[in-house]
Amino acid sequence: MRSRTIYLFFIIFMIVSTSGEHKSNETNLFEGKNLLLFELSETRDYSIKIASSPILIDSDDDFLSYGFPGNGSETNPFLIQNLEIDTTSDAGIIIRDTTKNFAIQNCVITATFVGIYLVNNTGQILDINNNHCINTEVWGIYTYFCSNLNISENTCAYNQGGIGVFISNDSVISNNLCYDNKCGIMGGALDRFTITENMCLYNLIDGMNFAYSKQLTLYDNLCTNSRYGINLYAIADSILIENTVQFADDGFYFYGLYNVSMYRNDLRLNYVGISTANSNNLYIGYNNCSDGTYGMWLSENYFSIIEQNNCNRNIENGMRFSRSGSCLIQDNECNDNLNNGMYVVSHDRPDREDNQIINNTCNNNTNGINLYVSSSFFIFNNTCNENRYGIKLEDSSNNEIIANTFQENREYGVCITDFESNWNKVYGNYFICNNLAGTEYGYSQAYDRNYNNRWYDYDSDQGNFWTDFEGEGEYVIDGNYNMTDPYPFIYNYDCQATSKPTTEQTEESYFGLFIVLLSFLGTVTLVKTRYKK
């Protein structure tokens, strides 16, 4: 095979791959790398043979000329096995333009550019099993226009790319070990692929990289110590479940996804657990994105559901959302982050409205939920306790903050910081023992620097519940314009006690709670209708 063909694939690989320097991590997931990466001598079959030259098969007849066992049928495929090839030729094993079934197994291959090279083979059984492809300049294993692949239990190390699969259907990549490459496993133009139980470790750029593909299932893979753990571009109708990615700049890095579900993945200890952009109809649920710098960083996402994720103990934000619309963000935990539990930025256009933040827990952050230049959010039934601010609004308008709980925040339960934040509605919320030490503005549990916001429900004349309301008059809110809650309720709670609160309320407060519950039931019905899958 002429070397310029291999050079062409090398150039394509380098263009598709994301450039950048590897960011090393001193912390290791394993006690010792060599404990996991087995030695070839320990797995080598005693019947292995030394091949003096590479294997080149350009037609079905070449299988016979080499004298390989088998007849090429589905029940008796040709077997290329137990070979050790160390060659300066472009590739160790080349098979192209065949129609027969074959298996390549238990071989050790070192070549100049590609260990195993398959192009345009149309058999129903194409198995590549238990081979070791080491120290090539481009690919350990490379396939192009080959379907029905079973690539399993191979070791690909010290190559540019470990395993590369392009323009293929109906295949499985499983139980492979790819380490110390630039990319562990890469694929493009794939359909109906299962990628499962692979280990991609210490690869310079990507653990896995797939593009322009659909109906992928990535299940139970382990990717560590790469710039991007799993990198997807232009992927549709696919699932990522129970993968583990750690010590990466981006655990999941996605762009241009449509109708993709990712759930029960372990994405701790990354700079960013999940990073997505320009994607629609995502389901992101039950993932652990804790103990990094950002748990999630989602931008330009539409019609997506983000629920039941853990984004705790991150250096910056538990979740960061920007320039997205019609998303439902519910039942997530964003606790103990050094900056914001949830940070929402640049949602200020009509096509980025209709976002809902419901029933999340955002405790012990600087800000529980922080909206910056973000409008038209429905923020309902969240718990924001023991932060500096429970909810902070900056240059954000037309938001509804309803039936949330703000308890023991160091300053304000809700803080509307600037004159540009207009027409926000705040009612039916529980303000419990916030701002006990006071600020330069006073001892109120809320702050509003504008005069166009409303601290009660216009239709029912119901305000909020306050532990420091004494039962008469309006509740005064700190700020420059003497804003008040004109219809406050008493909420009895001993802020100096460690026991649970008492809920002794006036008749007016019971009526207010009834109104809030009715609003809640209506909202749940609306949400279920809109987001029913």
Instruction: Describe the global form.
Output: elongated
Q: Tell me the strand percentage band.
A: 35-45%
Number of helices: 5
Summed over residues and divided by their number, the pLDDT gives a mean of 87
Point out poorly predicted stretches: 1-47, 498-533
Helix content: 10-25%
Q: How much is the radius of gyration in Å?
A: 29 Å
Structural class: mainly beta
Query: Could you describe the largest sheet, including whether it forms a barrel?
Result: 28 strands, parallel
**DSSP strand tally:** 44
Separation, N- and C-terminal Cα atoms:
51 Å
Helices, strands, pairings?
Blueprint: H1 3-16, H2 33-36, H3 40-43, E1 49-51, E2 55-57, H4 60-66, E3 78-81, E4 83-86, E5 91-96, E6 102-105, E7 108-110, E8 114-121, E9 126-129, E10 132-134, E11 139-146, E12 149-152, E13 155-157, E14 161-174, E15 177-179, E16 183-196, E17 199-201, E18 206-219, E19 222-224, E20 228-241, E21 244-246, E22 250-255, E23 258-263, E24 272-285, E25 294-302, E26 305-307, E27 319-322, E28 328-330, E29 340-347, E30 355-358, E31 367-374, E32 377-380, E33 383-385, E34 389-394, E35 400-402, E36 405-407, E37 414-416, E38 425-427, E39 430-432, E40 446-448, E41 465-466, E42 475-476, E43 484-485, E44 489-490, H5 507-531
Overview of the structural elements:
The protein is mainly beta and 533 residues long. It is built from 5 helices and 44 strands. It has a 28-stranded parallel beta sheet that branches. A 9-stranded parallel beta sheet has the order 1-4-7-10-13-15-17-19-21, with no helix packed on it. Strands 33-36-39-41-44 form a 5-stranded parallel beta sheet. The longest helix is centred in the last third of the chain and has 25 residues, at 507-531. The protein is elongated.
